[in-house]
Amino acid sequence: MIFLTQLIYIKEGKENVFHEFEAVAIPIISKYNGKLLLRVRPDDNAFIEHHMDKPYEVHLVQFETQKDFENFMQDKERKKFLHLKEQSIKSSILIQGKKIG
Prior knowledge:
By secondary structure, this protein is of the alpha+beta class. Helices cover 35% and strands 32% of the residues. It is built from 4 helices and 4 strands, in the order βαββαααβ.
């Protein structure tokens, strides 16, 4: 089992374009033995301390295997909508981890 945390930074004014991409991409996760565990859009009050830009959204996703994640990334339907991702996302940070304990 792998866990992925993604911090997503949106281009100003492109929130709706980002939501269009997510409407396509998120349902495809389950096709590849994945599950969106958390999708958080924190407001300013949610940050106690920070030394980096505040993300627009934070996602926590799990996949059964690394190969499942790689297959998700190569999904043909998802790739048709990557232009929406490119139009709306300024940058993102992807952190891969595993469950401990």
